[in-house]
Design brief:
single chain, mainly alpha, 68% helix, binds zinc ion
Length: 99
Amino acid sequence: MGDGKEVYKQTLQRFIGLYCRKKHLSKQGLCPDCQDLLQYAVQRTDACRQDPKPPCKFCPIHCYAPSYRQKIRQVMRYSGLYMILHGRLDWLVKYLLAR
Ligand SMILES: [Zn+2]
């Protein structure tokens, strides 16, 4: 099981990193907001008791607090669209298949 979570966390990092670079124009690393969001998302992933972990999108539990849930959805929509437009479907597929 550990493996899937690692892939998922890497993907989160990738999506949030892209969003922050494009939306917040961060040059290095993440802005404090996105850093906070990533940390939260990683924590939730580690704390997930579903085994195997379903993609968060399809999870019946929805463990994210509403404010973070909204933020992460924004990030995923923005970065997902960016990846489609720039031919990075491999990352999108990874996200959708990540457990
Ligand atoms: Zn940011």
